[in-house]
Amino acid sequence: MLETVDFDQRRQLIEQIPCRVQVPLDWEEELEGEGYTTSYNNEFRANFRYRASRRAVLQIGEALPAFPRESGMFGALVQDFSRRGMGLLYHEQLLPEERVRVLLPSVSVDATVVRCCYRGPDCYALGLTLESDCRLREMLA
Amino acid sequence: MSTTAESKLFAISLATLQPTEAVDWDLYILPRDTDQHILYRASKYPFHAKDLQRLLESGVTKLYIPREERASYQEYLRENLDAWLENSAIPPIERMETLNQVMRGVLNDSFRKPDTDKVVNRTIQFGRQAAAFLESETIRFDDLVRVLQHDYTTFTHSANVCYYAVLLAKSLGYEGDDLTQIATGALLHDMGKLDVDQHLLTKEHRLSEAETRQMQKHPTLGFRRLCRQDDLSAGQLMMVYQHHERLDGGGYPVGLPDDEIHPWAKICSVVDVFDALTSDRSYRVALDYDTAMESIERDANLAFDAEMLACWKQLISTNVGS
User: What is the distance in angstroms between the Cα of A130 and the nearest Cα belonging to chain B?
Assistant: First the structure.
């Protein structure tokens, strides 16, 4: 769900919440640059991805019955996003079907985890499906 | 007396019949040196203990029922399974055979029209029965393997992985409720294959890159199906999600390192591969145990926990049980 909120307040919040992600050295390159990324035939992506590294805050929504989660807000690093998806780095493993809310300065987006890959200690690459379309302009603000 | 075509009949183990009650189906017998089944007992007629004894004394181990009664027979077995498993007058391996027959029948039906709630309920019941039985009885591993099927259909494989996982977990020191949970987790470990294109599961040739990626989704698909079930524990769900992870981080779907893989998933991983290698596949025949173990041991500490492998190797070469 996209919301209109106080931009400055949210940006401040995002800056204040520590991000515990440890980006591996060979992954730092992945966070550089900005713009549309090449989509490979074997990725079967429905929408273009836009690469744009951003600090964000992640809130865990309703936990899965067997996996209770600590509530609160945690820092994360957005890697890229598309109209209905988002890739971000997080400090711990999240599981498929877990619901999260991602806060960016201009929007908050509800999403579901669809995949999670280990990149290194305190670094997991999450693939999220957004519950509503996101607009590039809002995500980049 | 009447005869009937073999294709219309279904073999049942004599050990599965409770004496002193009238069974619901016509029972047929195949007399020695003939290929003609004859009616032994019409439905609703009493089947006493002395009848059973007489059959056993004359060397009969199987009777036959009309194929269309299969569902009713499965139901009968399910209802009487606890009593059978606890009946110490029947040799353990025969009870094991009955358990396997019932479990495969139910899993086959359940996996064809997967209603997740029903599958979970049934696997919890069978997990409890299989764990309790294998925890309390002594069965030689080669006897166990003889009564199992090795055709690698998803339901057969799930049942085999369940028994193997309980045996390995028991050897590693697990007991009681942990064994029950491990048994159920093992029964469900490949649930995600029900959401994979079925022709990939039986393809005779090497899978393409895209097909391999499809197949590799099954742990995640299984987890997604099951993760909201209140009666499954984290360990059981990790058996579904992590059974293709490798200790060296080269597995899927997450690529987790050793210390982040759940120990029950590591157990599942060892016995899953063992059953896969020792079963007939669409593209090769089953390997013998030694060759299968040699192949698995090459991946000790890379894919598989070395201590678990050593325990499994010892287990398959000796008697198992209490």
Answer: 17
Structure tokens at B234: 């984290």
Q: How confident is the model at residue A47 (pLDDT cuts 50, 70, 90)?
A: low
Per the CB < 8 Å rule, is A96 touching B224?
A: yes
Interface contact A61, partner B, CB < 8 A: no
The closest alpha carbon to B239, from B262, B215, B216, B214, belongs to B262
Pairwise CB contact (< 8 Å): A95 & B233:
no
CA-CA distance, A34 to B203, in Å (whole number)? 42
Contact in structure between B36 and B71 (CB atoms under 8 Å)? no
Q: Do B249 and A118 touch (CB under 8 A)?
A: yes
- Does B227 lie at the interface with A, CB-CB under 8 angstroms? yes
Contact yes or no for B158/B189 (Cβ under 8 A): yes
| A69 confidence band (pLDDT: 50, 70, 90) | very high
Rounded to the nearest angstrom, the minimum Cα separation between A114 and chain B is 9
**Spatial distance between the Cα atoms of A45 and B73, rounded to a whole number of angstroms:** 49
Taking residues B243-271, report their average pLDDT: 98
Q: Give the mean pLDDT of chain B.
A: 89
Q: pLDDT averaged over chain A?
A: 87
pLDDT of residue B3: 40
CATH: 2.40.10.220, 3.90.180.10, 2.60.40.10, 1.10.1740.10. Which one for A7-21+48-140? 2.40.10.220
